[in-house]
Predict the structure.
Amino acid sequence: MGNTIFSKIIDKEIKADIVFESDKVLAFRDINPQAPVHIIIIPKEEIPRINNFEMTKHSEVLCEMIDAANKLAREMKIDDGFRLVINSGDKGGQTVYHLHIHLLGGRQMNWPPG
Ligand code: 5GP
């Protein structure tokens, strides 16, 4: 039970192209992909943004999210080069206030990001 669109995806009230699911983590394709592979990896527990990360509470789920990102990168054959992004706050480009990691790949990434 949460307040964002991602909670509805977790609860299967809204459809998403789910590519990974465990007890604690869900990953699905971004609806507006910015690269040939663009996957959103979320904790099922609602953590609004990375600023709310608490070492004692959230270490395990964050590690699982990173592990899922690596597994998916291998599965999607982009493990030779990809990008993980966490946007935080309006100024950081965050639009959905349920913590998520973007996994982007399949094209050349540039730096600095826009
Ligand atoms: P943020 O801007 O918060 O870092 O990223 C939110 C991401 O969620 C955006 O890339 C956006 O395209 C994606 N997104 C927003 N709503 C939906 C949705 O209903 N379904 C899916 N699959 N992705 C969504």
